[in-house]
Amino acid sequence: MRELRLAGIDIGTLTCRLLIADLSPLGPLKELHSERRILRLGEGVDQLRQLKREAMDRVLLCLSEWRRVIDHHHVDAHAVVATSAVRDAQNRQEFLDRVKSETGLEVEVLSGEEEAQRTMLGIRSGLPAHIIDVLAVDIGGGSTECIIARQGQSPVVRSIDIGVVRLSERQFRHDPPTAEEIEEARAWVRCEMTEALATMPRRTGCTFVGTAGTITSLAAMAQQLPAYEPARIHNYRLTIETIADLEHQLLSRTKAERVGMPGLENNREDVIAAGAIILRTVMDTLPEGECLVSDLGLREGVLISLASRITQ
Which of 65, 4, 36 shows the shortest CA–CA distance to 265? Predict the structure, then answer.
């Protein structure tokens, strides 16, 4: 396979991500351009089952800008995927048609299983060589995917419809959340995870790996990073004790009081507490005492999958 220059866009419930990279047959992804923006496409989707017009407008403006960036890099191919918010919305076709007509981009709406499989491609591309069997969790805005990936076997995937936006909108009516709201949120995550895990194969011998914005933000907060540093976040080890401490700090503050906390990405203040609850509850349910953080995930997997398709 010759070196390919590819672009991928991940349209998430909370965040949209762009990655342009060169892929060679023997080496890792060589990043050329990377962006992510918190645009909240999925706000209100849990209750209304509709994408709001103003949310679609925000994303379309971003995609128009990114289309120009992609064209500037003269890529060999590009792929655009959408996840939970778009697949759950009854008016998703309106959004997909607008993206096509206003930007020329075709969007593939991924199922939970397809999302997880591509996420695992991205995770695997950045794991230390000695880590073979993996239990991965991907906490998104609208859903959370759990993936068991053993060498030589097809990944086993379970997707639950709980993400940071969905949990925040459905459970948190006060700022900060009350003790009752927090316990209700934990109970919901625990119930859904227990049900999902009951149908998964044995997990012994697997390294627990976490990806996506909640987990990378918690890794940045644990290190009190003044700016996002992928090299210090990727393959960082988050202990359950650190996660519990961060969760306590977040839940004891209002959204406004979380602004400026070291390591916390701007505009994630209102959903990071829900993310901490999800991660801690998932780890308690498994149980796991440590999470290996991956800065690579779905958007890297989108490029690897695209390269595989166009070189077959």
Answer: 36
Strands 290-294 and 237-239: antiparallel
Q: How many angstroms separate the CA atoms of 165 and 268, rounded?
A: 10
| C-alpha Rg value of the chain to the nearest Å | 19
Backbone angles phi, psi at 248, to 5 degrees: -60, -45
The CATH code that applies to domain 127-294 is 3.30.420.150
Query: Which DSSP string corresponds to 276-294?
Result: HHHHHHHHHHTT-SEEEEE
Q: Which two tokens stand for residue 97?
A: 């048609």
Length of the chain counted residue by residue: 312
Looking at residues 2-24, what average pLDDT do you find?
Answer: 93
Q: What is the amino acid identity at position 289?
A: G
Question: What are the extents of the domains in the chain?
Answer: 4-112, 127-294
DSSP 110: P
Residue 155 has phi, psi (to 5 degrees) of -60, 145
pTM assigned to the model: 0.89
What pairing do the DSSP bridges indicate for beta strands 15-23 and 30-38? antiparallel
Tokens of 138: 């991907």
Residue type, 274: A
pLDDT digits (tens, 9 = 90+) for 84-138: 899 989 999 999 999 999 999 999 999 888 888 899 999 998 998 899 999 999 9
State the DSSP string of 214-249.
HHHHHHHHHTT-SS--HHHHTT-EEEHHHHHHHHHH
**4-112 architecture in CATH?**
2-Layer Sandwich (3.30)
Give the amino acid at 8.
Answer: G
Confirm whether 4-112 and 127-294 share one CATH topology.
Answer: yes
SS3 212: coil
Cis amide bond preceding 28, omega within 30: no
